[in-house]
Amino acid sequence: MSQNFLNYIGGQWVPARSGRTFWNHDPATGEALGEFPASALEDVDAAVAAAAKAFRGWRLTPAPKRAEIVFRAGEIIRARKEDLARAMTREMGKVLIEARGDVQEGIDMAYLAAGEGRRMYGVTTPSEMPDKWAMSVRAPVGVVGVITPWNFPFAIPSWKLMPALVAGNTAVFKPAGDTPEMAWHFTKILEEAGLPPGVLNLVFGSGAEVGNPMVEHPGIHVISFTGSTDVGLAIAGRGGALGKRISLEMGGKNAIIVMDDADLAHATDAIAWSAFGTTGQRCTACSRVLVHGRVHDELADRVTAKAKQLKLGSGLEPTTDVGPLVNRSQVEKVHAYVEIGAKEGTLAAGGGPARDGALAKGHFYRPTVFRDVPAGARIAVEEIFGPVLAMVKVESLEQAIEINNASRYGLSAAIFTRDVKSAFAAMRDLETGIVYVNHGTTGAETHLPFGGTRGTGNGHREAGHTMLDPFTEWKSIYVDFSGRLQRAQIDNA
Ligand code: UN1
């Protein structure tokens, strides 16, 4: 049963001005799910105007009151967790337990961000002059533009929009074309929670027709983007030239290092979960294992056996381990890499789409393992964003760390070892935004900063105690109560 959905602009649910629409589809069955406005510049203009208007009142609403609305949204999300998770699995394919986890991140983030409404600490410091008071406070930036991907269609909008709104900004939100329905639920819930009209505006459509006009729009002051490195860098270039603040979360090529003293059964479970969970479509997914030469063959055998056991199917089936890829072009991209990999390493599991029986209608791809892959091979270096794992032999921890740090990306890395010296050296020397010890590369918790180095980001961190940083300006305030001219750096020198 399909449904029609509308943009949300200035507190009204409205179609695209052009009347054009697009559809989202169930990647497990190909079924059309819903019809959404295919918006364009004029819709972005309307959304920015509504956000600018709403900013006047919202920024003056006390932060604890703004935060209460976000808290209420968390309560609504919690009450609807199961329905939201099912809608997510239908819309983008990940298995139900993972979809529940994605929704849970939204709940966690709502409660965490709501708490900031009663903190949002500033800093006071003594003035160098007598009878003068000095402090720094956070101020909202204005209208923020939020552009989100399909792989975490609830968690990622939560990381961005909840802190942005608590901080007193208003927002224009453009979700990925593959997962508009989750963005609709997210927005509807905030409306129900009591968000005033215009504070959050939802505009569906493509990157070219909605995303680019947002980046160009003089009324949008911050762009917060999660997605591919190529698109992110283009946004940074254009937005930077226009003087905007651009906060980016982009690709990853996350490695798990396995030392020869590691618990290989534990490492195997963690590798399989990190590499094939969400069908490999996490920025944090493990796509390469840097394994000590002494245990490479044993670990490769174990991981291969595990990959072959995983059951493909609809994410709604409780027995399914791995759901479909999100769309056909992802299948094509993944398969192109697998063909490259076949020339670079030894194919040990998977290696092609799965089309038997009920799988024929969906975008399924077999969990794929390559062993004996050279560290410089394309499948060991480039982001694939699918269920493809490259196992690379290393001779030492130093070599593993060097390979990890030479990557274009720097989101997450992990080490399996029983040796405290290796663990602490890895914690110190791995140049990624997230490091795990005896744990896979996925599963970041919302109350720690999330983001990466090098091609993964541009220095910003989302969530955690850093959540307000992309969405606030620091304002330093001096209050002189001396009643006379006082000249800093001069009268007291
Ligand atoms: C992402 O893939 O962009 O750490 C987000 C994790 C999840 C979030 C992933 N909590 O794997």
UniProtKB/TrEMBL annotation:
Residues 13-477 form the Aldehyde dehydrogenase domain. The lineage of its organism: Bacteria, Candidatus Eiseniibacteriota. GO terms for molecular function: aldehyde dehydrogenase (NAD+) activity. It is an enzyme of class 1 (oxidoreductase). Belongs to the aldehyde dehydrogenase family. Keywords: NAD, Oxidoreductase. Homotetramer. The active site is at E249. Pfam families: Aldedh. It comes from the Bacteria. This is aldehyde dehydrogenase (NAD(+)). It comes from Eiseniibacteriota bacterium. Its EC number is 1.2.1.3. InterPro entries: Ald_DH/histidinol_DH, Ald_DH_C, Ald_DH_CS_CYS, Ald_DH_CS_GLU, Ald_DH_N, Aldehyde_DH_dom, ALDH7A1-like.
